[in-house]
Amino acid sequence: MLVVSAVLVALLTAIPGLFRATTPFALMFLALAAGGFVRATLFTASNALGFVEVEQRMVTAASTLQAVVLQLSISMGITVGGLVLQLVRLGAGPKITPSQFTIPFCVVGVMSLLAVPVFARLPRTSART
Q: CA–CA distance from 42 to each of 6, 72, 87, 112 (Å)?
C-alpha cells in the first residue's frame, strides 16, 4: 500500500503543473484536496514505520532525527522546484507564466517517486510488527 500511496503522491504533486486559468476551480480543489489527503496518509504511515525497530529509550532521539530529515526533504523539494523554475525561465524574460510551472511540478513529482523502491523493499509484515 505504501508503494501505491507514493505513486499517487507523485502524480498528485505533478498535477498542479497542468492547471491553467481555464481549469475548473472544482477540479483544482479536488486535485489539491486528494493530494493533501494522500500525502498526509503516506507521511503518517512512513512516520509510524520509522519507529518500528527503535528501542523505547531511543524514541526521543529518533523522533528528533526524523523531524530534521522531514524538514530537509521538504526544503530540498522546494529548492529543486525553484531551481527548475529558474532554469525553465532562462531566456524567457522577466515575466513568469503559468506554463513555466509545468516542468518544475513534474520534476518534484518524479523526485517523490524515489521513495517507491525503498517502500517496495520493505517486507509486507513491517506494518504488523
A: 7, 17, 30, 11
In the chain, what percentage of residues exceed pLDDT 70? 97
Helix, strand, coil percent content, the chain, rounded in steps of 5: 80, 0, 20
The amino acid sitting at 64 is T
Phi and psi at residue 106, in whole multiples of 5°? -65, -40
pLDDT, tens digit, 9 for 90 and up, residues 29-74: 999 999 999 999 998 888 888 788 888 899 888 889 988 998 999 9
Question: Residue 127 has which C-alpha cell?
Answer: 506494518
Q: Burial level of 14, CB count in 10 A (0-12/13-18/19+)?
A: buried
* Whole-Å CA distances, 127 to 20, 62, 74, 89, 124: 40, 18, 24, 44, 7
Among 30, 37, 47, 67, which residue's Cα sits nearest to residue 115?
47
- Whether the model clears a pTM of 0.85, i.e. scores above it, the answer is no
Output the CA–CA distances (angstroms, integers) from residue 34 to 5, 31, 40, in the order listed: 11, 5, 10
Report residue 35 as a C-alpha cell.
Answer: 493530494
